[in-house]
Amino acid sequence: MPLLKNNLLVSDTWITAEAEGELPNAGDVIVPFARLHTEWDALSARTGRLGVRFGNTDKPEALAGFLPRLSVIVLPFPAFNDGRAYSIARRLREMGYRGELRAIGNVLPDQLQFMLQVGFDAFEIGERFPLETWQKASRQMSLAYQRGLFRRGAEAEIWTERHTDAEPWLEQPHAG
Fold first, then answer.
1. Domains of the chain
2. What's the predicted TM-score (pTM) here?
3. Is 6 helix (H, G, I), strand (E, B) or coil?
4. Residue in 17, 47, 49 with CA at minimum distance from that of residue 35
């Protein structure tokens, strides 16, 4: 399945391992979260990068000790109306994870901007929508309304852009 990264279609070079079975001795591999716990020593000794397929029902804090070693975290969207992966992605970014966050499953172009805002940076896309649709969706919004969401480089939210000269506490809408 092709991946959309930085608005380009790229090949997925990662090997996806199942819950059981042999792992290749070398190469980049994505393992299920349960396997991360049970085979950590063997996984750490491998040559190549390590990734994990993390479930919607798992708590992001369970990955805290593994984050420095993980190059990719794959989060599923089993249905377009299942938003648990949004919360997990945001929490992982808040915890300091800076590697690739990949969305898989029922990923739709109209949700792309929201996924980018919580920290996703790679998307497994099918043939349902052409590349042009994905590229257009990625350019539809250049600023976000919410403060404190994941930002890349020099991105900012609308409030900050409108109030560059203001003293933040006095200008920010707040109760009190």
1. 3-141 (3.20.20.70)
2. 0.82
3. coil
4. 17
